[in-house]
């Protein structure tokens, strides 16, 4: 089995890890972490559906075009992350910036959704840039608390770390993916698979954290 295929399979299976963590720790999760668990469940369904499309090849011998699914997933991601970061930020300025940047990113995504069969390179890049800005802003808020806290014990710290790691690593891949020759894409997809595995492990840690009484 090719390394790229093996890592892709591990990446898909790794999506179950945070789901199981959420199920185990569900009673102790706050509302925001339950939102995260719900989104990860939806994300896992997307990943599995795309994985199955690669396994099922019509009479052409090629996998189904899953780009329309990717467009839908990017749109859903903007809605979810915009809402969760809006609730996380204390500053009214950061809340307004979140809404403005999210509206801009959504406009870009909807514009390129006119071509659903094309890979959403620009849309994914816009989403990644949005998440990098929001996650860095939230880290600034975490590092300037009103009271002393152990941020490493905060589920939201790990959640935010996962968001930043995934977006920062993959943004250049998303920017260039459409320009990569088809015969070389499997090699570059390894980067995405490894990033996805690590991110799911970070989300697992986030969902296993006990809630802390803080004003974040």
UniProtKB/TrEMBL annotation:
<feature type="transmembrane region" description="Helical">
    <location>
        <begin position="68"/>
        <end position="86"/>
    </location>
</feature>
<keyword id="KW-0472">Membrane</keyword>
<keyword id="KW-0812">Transmembrane</keyword>
<feature type="transmembrane region" description="Helical">
    <location>
        <begin position="36"/>
        <end position="56"/>
    </location>
</feature>
<feature type="transmembrane region" description="Helical">
    <location>
        <begin position="189"/>
        <end position="209"/>
    </location>
</feature>
<feature type="transmembrane region" description="Helical">
    <location>
        <begin position="6"/>
        <end position="24"/>
    </location>
</feature>
<protein>
    <recommendedName>
        <fullName>YhhN-like protein</fullName>
    </recommendedName>
</protein>
<feature type="transmembrane region" description="Helical">
    <location>
        <begin position="93"/>
        <end position="113"/>
    </location>
</feature>
<keyword id="KW-1133">Transmembrane helix</keyword>
<feature type="transmembrane region" description="Helical">
    <location>
        <begin position="155"/>
        <end position="177"/>
    </location>
</feature>
<feature type="transmembrane region" description="Helical">
    <location>
        <begin position="125"/>
        <end position="143"/>
    </location>
</feature>
